[in-house]
Amino acid sequence: VQLQASGGGLVQAGGSLRLSCAASGRPNSNYAMGWFRQAPGKERNFLAAITNGNTYYADSVKGRFTISRDNAKNTVYLQMNSLKPEDTAVYYCTLPWPRNDYWGQGTLVTVSS
To answer: What is the per-residue pLDDT across 38-89, written as a single tens digit (0 to 9) for each?
Structure first.
């Protein structure tokens, strides 16, 4: 299984971005998928996860970020709104959450003040 994350970039505070993570190599659409992020000099932290029936969020992003999936495309998305400078990090997708056996390469999000 390979995970390809995309959609990162530079955005001003208050702006929005949508990250995508496409899974290939015969992933099972029943698996839960997750998003994590790692800011410079800090540990990697859980952000959100999605199963086929439920979503889970870290308190730090609840109400601002939305995770969704398109099983036909084997893709999970992370819609990020009201971005803050402290959201600046490399964002990673994982499969299957919470075991997190596979990780995407990460996509950099930079939020300017």
So the answer is: 999 999 999 999 998 899 999 999 999 999 999 899 999 999 999 999 999 9
Phi-psi group of 98: left, alpha or beta (phi > 0 → left; psi -120 to 50 → alpha; rest → beta):
alpha
* Model confidence pLDDT, tens digit, residues 5-39: 999 999 999 999 999 999 988 766 678 999 999 99
Burial classification of residue 76, based on how many CB atoms lie within 10 Å of its CB (0-12 exposed, 13-18 middle, 19 or more buried): buried
For residues 4-35, one letter each, b for 16 or more C-beta atoms within 10 angstroms of the residue's C-beta and e for the rest, the string is: ebebbeebeeeeebebbbbbeeebeeebbbbb
Asked if residue 14 lies in contact with residue 3, where contact means CB atoms within 8 angstroms, the answer is no
Q: Within 13 A of 28's CA, how many CA atoms are on the CB side?
A: 6
